[in-house]
Amino acid sequence: MTDSPIQAGEIRSFGKMSIPFVTPKLLSLIKTGKVYSLEQIIETGIPFWSGHQPLVISPLLRHGDSQDTYPTSIANDFLSLPMHGSTHIDALCHIGKYEGDDVLLHGGVDAKASQNNRGQLTYGAENFPPIILRGVLLDIAASKGLDVLPPSYGITGEDIAACEEKQNTRITPDTAVLIRTGYQKFWLSDNNEYSSSGAGPNIDGARYLVEKGAAIVGSDTESVEQQPPEGPGLPVHQYLIFENGVTHIEELFLEDLSKDKVYEFLFICLPLRIKGATGSVVHPIAIC
After folding, report:
1. Mean pLDDT throughout 184-210?
2. 237 neighbors 106 (Cβ within 8 angstroms)
3. How far apart (Å, rounded) are the C-alpha atoms in residues 181 and 237?
4. Among 28, 119, 169, 178, which is most exposed with the fewest C-beta within 10 angstroms?
5. Class of domain 13-42+84-287
6. Helices 203-212 & 157-167 angle (0-180, nearest 10)
């Protein structure tokens, strides 16, 4: 697997992800066949990162409008949604690092030279492969006997190891690691709390995940990182995405997995292949 920069259309590998091959070992994760949706419902009023435009869903054509021109009644809609709003995956071009006046992306790619008015020229969302991996749920909140972690709680490597032990779950290489903090409690009920004070991995926790070989890290919060972070900027994003090519899936719905104590499953996520985009809205599923 290579971490070399990927140009548009060259789908080989994307950070820690590669073209999937469905093996008997992956299929053996399916015991009951039950399918869980891990996507938040997209509806008016959902939380958004500060500075993002809000969701807009508008009718373009209503039933009855086409009666004079077409014999079948048709309805159609317009959706405007930030690429990093609702359940979404971050592309590798989403996060860069300042080096003096330069900005670098994962692998040392010149970020300023790799963009134009149509979007990102390297690591755009069109390069995401279909994602089919072993998935594990780390129910950090439940492992501590809590419904929801405290505000801005930084999840450490020790927390993750303790959760693995309690659940008898192990992070292995090429695993999608989904972290439950309990912050679903604030989705739509307290959007400010959801967006500004989320629990999440700190740098110590992020290092543990990389050392264990996580291919993707997801969470039920707006950012796969404690908010506010323990350092300037987004240190966990920078460590995982920029330094290690481990991307994020944010704002997952993990309550049903938690309720049924499903800790291991076949994880499937299909990003939209939007050329030059810094991420994609997704509908991940878990099959146990």
Report:
1. 95
2. no
3. 17
4. 28
5. alpha beta
6. 50
